Amino acid sequence: MTQNRILLRRGWPYLILMVLFAAATAGVTALLLNVAERKAEQRTPFVRLVDVNEDTTDPAKWGTNWPKQYDTYKLTAQQTKTRYGGHGGSEALPEEKIDRDPWLKRMFLGYAFAIDYRDRRGHAYMLEDQEQTKRQTKPQSGSCLHCHASIMPLYRKLGNGDAIAGFEKTYAMSYQEVSKALYDMGNAHPVSCVDCHDPDTMAIRVTRPGLLQGMQALARSDGEVPHLASVERWREGPRDRPYDINRDASRTELRSLVCAQCHVEYYCSSSFKLTFPWGKGLKVEQSEAFWNETTLASGERFYDYKHQETGAPILKAQHPEFELWSQGIHARSGVACADCHMPYMRDGATKVSDHWVRSPLLNISRACQTCHKFSEQEIQARVARIQDTNYRMLQNGGQAVVDLIDAVIAARASGATDEELAPALELQRRAQWRLDFVAAENSMGFHAPQETARILGEAADLARQGQIAALQAK
Ligand code: HEC
Ligand code: HEC
Ligand code: HEC
Ligand code: HEC
Ligand code: HEC
User: Fold this and answer.
1) DSSP assigned state of 262
2) Contact 469/408 with Cβ under 8 angstroms?
3) N or C: which end of the chain has fewer CB within 10 A?
4) CA 34 to ligand 1 center in whole angstroms
5) Does residue 145 contact residue 128 with C-beta atoms inside 8 Å?
6) b vs e for 87-99, b when ≥16 Cβ sit within 10 Å of the residue's Cβ?
7) Which segments of 279-373 does DSSP mark as H helices, in order?
């Protein structure tokens, strides 16, 4: 009663309040609707216009559904260059690494890498560069295509539906045979959407048998993996099923593991199947120990080639980006390959991952400044400091290995026997393995500066020890 009277008597201000309240409600509702719309946009940032499935290797088909990702993916055909990254040389082909660093060529004498070994470039070129390399003048294994083409449908075909079985057949086939089968099926595309995405959910996943098996071996080993919590969890569990990336790994881990399908050290030839040497861990000496315990079909201890001038049984390292990133502070802090090489771009409310995979130094604002609040110039300078130091140590190591090779040749000329030279040759193998592990990695030390400094220090030391051993043999 009393309240009503008050309300009547003082009705005017209340009316204003009610109007204001209604207006505010309408405003909030509109805002909520807008947020809901944006959220929906985030959840389904695409309309599926065409169907894609496990056999759709042509990225253009996926591009109809996901045009923003496809448009940036196509940019990998652009030429890029930084001080140490991307590639120089003609537009037709990247520069020869073995001409730029003659000690590399000297190390590789006796192997196809002494014929042709160039800078890498964008993903768009991976298949044609593999087809064109003069290393193809030597017989190459069908395993090569594991990392240079969208090959899963062919593996399934060769294995009658079982991709792993198909994969395990290809090492014994020639490159030409596997390549022809790929073209005949219409799957001769560089790395494609289906290689990293589940066509039903678009979630990222891993497809390559080499990595699936490599990670199983790593999980079974006791190599430290502080950056891969899912492996540590699996190790503590019942171990009744092998570690399975697509079941066990977190999304953050997958943001690196999709790249580890290819950016790793591997063995690829016709003696046995494509192998990632992780059975003892990811570090340079753990892979070395793994190779030392591996035997070739001939029964000999594993080697990639015999050095033409010294006869040393050499291990050749290939682009261990994943392994060295694993030893760095970024991996340990949960920073994935995709954070730097495929950073997010805003597009309305949706976040789009930049599929123009390239040097992050061309993209510092999105690749680094999200975490590091320094100017572009300062960030560039910090990277340059790391890379220039690494470069100098690399050159020193190269000189030391060349001196070792010269000493072995001189010792032989003055009558030293193979038996007397055996210690020097073993040291050549160990020194070259370390030097090459850093030289073949493509970040010029950035991914793990302390680790590459340690490895290069050891490489130079072992090479000088080898040189002394050769001098003593003489
Ligand atoms: C913290 C950022 C960061 C992370 C994480 C990272 N990288 Fe890099 N990466 C760099 C930088 C910086 C360079 C040097 C680029 C240059 O010299 O132009 C580089 C270089 C490279 C290159 C050579 C690029 C070129 O243009 O020649 C490759 C390949 C590469 N990284 C692959 C990887 C892979 C694979 C992973 C994950 C296993 C990874 N990176 C993780 C920052 C990163
Ligand atoms: C485990 C994956 C993998 C396998 C197997 C593989 N590659 Fe590659 N290849 C890469 C990656 C990653 C790069 C880019 C990084 C680099 O150039 O160091 C590359 C780069 C190249 C390049 C360009 C740079 C250069 O070396 O001149 C050629 C050519 C090439 N590969 C040929 C081959 C041949 C031939 C085989 C088989 C003997 C092969 N690849 C097997 C992953 C692989
Ligand atoms: C199917 C194998 C494969 C996968 C998966 C793959 N790469 Fe590559 N990547 C290559 C090959 C091969 C090349 C070299 C191509 C050439 O030189 O023709 C290359 C080149 C590069 C380059 C050099 C680009 C340039 O412009 O010089 C970068 C950077 C790179 N990859 C990073 C990554 C990152 C990051 C991932 C994961 C998001 C990834 N790659 C996934 C095989 C692969
Ligand atoms: C080398 C691996 C790789 C390839 C090849 C690749 N993607 Fe991705 N893609 C990624 C990664 C990594 C992410 C980030 C996913 C995450 O964090 O969950 C991503 C994210 C996406 C997303 C989710 C939204 C976004 O942008 O983050 C879409 C859609 C997508 N990719 C479409 C494509 C299409 C279309 C292609 C082929 C033209 C393609 N991708 C090729 C690795 C790849
Ligand atoms: C997602 C976050 C993130 C991104 C993206 C990122 N960083 Fe980092 N960075 C870190 C963290 C975390 C550390 C470890 C030090 C710390 O905790 O502050 C670090 C450390 C470093 C260091 C010191 C390295 C060392 O070994 O001591 C350098 C240099 C660096 N970052 C450069 C870069 C550059 C260049 C990029 C872009 C290509 C980049 N970072 C991208 C988070 C990031």
Assistant:
1) T
2) no
3) N
4) 38
5) no
6) bebeeebbeebbe
7) 284-292, 321-326, 329-332, 337-341, 364-367
Q: Two tokens at 157?
A: 């075909």
Q: What are the beta bridge partners of residue 279?
A: 281
The 10 Å CB-count burial string (b at 16+, else e) for 388-402 is ebbeebbebbbebbb
| pLDDT value of position 8 | 43
Q: Which residues line ligand 3 (CB under 6 A)?
A: 80, 86-87, 120-123, 125-126, 129, 147-148, 191, 195, 258-259, 261-263, 337-338, 341-342, 357-358
CA of 122 to the centre of ligand 3 (A): 7
Q: Which helix (H) or strand (E) holds 196?
A: helix 193-196
Write out the H or E segment, with its range, that includes residue 383.
helix 376-413
List alpha helices for 237-346, DSSP H: 245-248, 251-260, 284-292, 321-326, 329-332, 337-341
Q: Which atom of ligand 3 is nearest to the CA of 94?
A: 17
> pLDDT value at position 451?
98
Residue type, 447: H
Q: Are 246 and 206 in contact (CB under 8 A)?
A: yes
Is the CB of residue 471 less than 8 Å from the CB of residue 424?
A: no
Q: 122 pLDDT exceeds 50?
A: yes
User: In ligand 3, which atom is closest to the CA atom of 119?
Assistant: 17
Query: For residue 129, what are the contacts with CB-CB under 8 A and spacing of at least 6?
Result: 93, 94, 118, 121
Q: Sketch the domain layout of the chain as residue ranges.
A: 2-39
Please report which residue ranges of 152-192 form alpha helices under DSSP H.
152-158, 163-170, 175-185
3-state secondary structure of 301: strand
Mutate-to-test residue for ligand 5 from 368, 378, 443, highest number of ligand atoms within 8 A of CB: 368
Q: Which of 259, 265, 321 to mutate to test the pocket of ligand 1 (most atoms within 8 A of CB)?
A: 321
Per DSSP, helices labelled H in 416-474 are 418-439, 449-473
| Averaged pLDDT, 379-398 | 98
Q: Going by DSSP bridges, is the β-strand pair 344-347/350-353 parallel, antiparallel, or unpaired?
A: antiparallel
1 pLDDT higher than 90: no
Pocket test for ligand 1, best of 95, 254, 258, 442 (most atoms within 8 A of CB): 442
Q: What is the Cα–Cα distance from 177 to 231, expressed in whole angstroms? A: 37
CB 127 within 8 A of CB 76: no
Confidence at residue 22, expressed as pLDDT on a 0 to 100 scale = 63
CA triplet 129, 391, 284: central angle to 5 degrees?
Answer: 75
**C-alpha radius of gyration, the chain, whole number:** 28
Instruction: Supply the mean pLDDT for the chain.
Output: 91
